[in-house]
């Protein structure tokens, strides 16, 4: 996988090696709750915790199937631990989850990896409202539950797209960070912003696997470059932030020769070459679909690489803004954004009230939500093109 994303070695091996004893000691004496633990990042985090023998590791996720695979994966790779390992197929916004929290023995660390992460989820007002619920209000709710359970630390994932956001997903995570600042008065909170996780579920690179499996064309933008981390690196970054992050710290991967921008089209060509195929560039969706039936037998695979024109695509990626204070000295390959507990109580209440009114009326538009986001984030760089990824192959 490293060669596909233009690297020769793992990103965080030096920091993990330097802190391995402290990590192992803290994990082995602690109880963990991982929310959204069966997604790609969640599974990576769970495995990083599990292999260090925690006292308890409870995993909650909506996906029953992904939880089953997580358990099979762990049993087949790491085996068993002396601690209490359980999984629960629950919605963290549900009364069943609330009951689980009420009856639990408490946790030292609560990690929240649940999110609606796709830029395309802003295409309609209903999915967009669920994004707000999951990314903002469920986070705020579970921080409060962590406080009530006596947890000493709450961790959740932000996104590189929260730095100078241009789409609703990134903006929702930035608003989430604002809510976290308020809760940080009562519990230590740390987060992480990081790059695309290569081949994570639902990602474009994961789609490459699916297209080959179904003998379908590979499609990718030719004008978008991104940073990539591996699933294991995403788990390591989250655990490092959770265990070693100070209150309000945001961890991110330092840019270096090892971590650089690479285009989806370049990865597609390398990916096909590794599987014995030459990328054949098509001129249209129709041509690509038609050639998918015949080209693979000739050692070629139909590809359509086009420029991006859909709503919410960011021209470049960044992990921090010019206004944020950085600590670049503590770790070798991890940078840290240092934050003061700055937030506008009235603004957060305004956001909560307005969303509550929309839900109570059972009617809202995307435009109303976008306007509210601009109220929260005056420098929000959202541009509506009227085009979304669901209208493309």
From TrEMBL:
Record domain Polysaccharide biosynthesis protein CapD-like: where: 33-273
Superkingdom, natural source: Bacteria
Protein name, UniProt field: UDP-N-acetylglucosamine 4,6-dehydratase
Family as reported in the entry's similarity comment: Belongs to the polysaccharide synthase family.
Gene3D superfamilies named in the record: 3.90.25.40, NAD(P)-binding Rossmann-like Domain
Pfam families membership: Polysacc_synt_2
Signal peptide extent: none
InterPro entries membership: NAD(P)-bd_dom_sf, Polysac_CapD-like, Polysaccharide_Synthase-Rel
